[in-house]
Amino acid sequence: MLKASDYKISPFELESVLHRAPGCRRGCGRPGTRSDPARGPKASVVLAPGYEPTRETASEIFGHARDNLAPYLRVRRLVLGDLPKTTSGKIRRVELRARESDPADADQTAEGEWRDDQFPELKEGGARG
């Protein structure tokens, strides 16, 4: 279970929407950092062939999540890149948690990481392209 803003979220619920997002080959949901002001779920996504880790790709995935998830389930941070796996092919979530940056750097974003507040066009009432 993921916990975000006092909601308990099933990773399956979040990941099943991510898997249907354009450009997403595999996705993994996880809780955001405690110091993150958005306090929503974070997702790591492996891109499908032909997709690059660009702003446009991140916007498409955020838009898909916004259209298909309840507000409290929406992804607040998105990391585009590889997922660490075990020899049997399962995602090593413990390694994903270990990759998290220092909580004091919550306003900083790592390479390949996007925040939903970087896409004002996706907010309610905003124009969708």
Structural overview:
This protein is α+β, with helices and mostly antiparallel strands and 129 residues long. The protein has a single domain, classed as ANL, C-terminal domain (GMP Synthetase, Chain A, domain 3, 2-Layer Sandwich). β4, α2 and β5 form a beta-alpha-beta unit. The C terminus is likely disordered.
Would you give the CATH topology?
GMP Synthetase, Chain A, domain 3
- Terminal CA distance reads 33 Å
Q: What are the secondary-structure elements, in order, as H or E?
A: EEHEEHEHE
Our Rg estimate from Cα atoms comes to: 14 Å
State the CATH architecture.
2-Layer Sandwich
What's the total number of strands? 6
Q: In what range is the share of β-strand residues?
A: 15-25%
**What's the CATH H-level homologous superfamily?**
ANL, C-terminal domain
- Helical run tally: 3
Overall mean pLDDT stands at: 78
Q: For this structure, what is the CATH class?
A: Alpha Beta
**Helicity range:** 10-25%
Judged by helices, strands and strand pairing, the structural class is alpha+beta
Write the layout of secondary structure elements.
Layout: E1 2-4, E2 7-9, H1 11-19, E3 24-30, E4 42-47, H2 55-68, E5 77-80, H3 93-99, E6 113-115
Parallel strand pairs: 4-5
Antiparallel strand pairs: 1-2, 3-4, 5-6
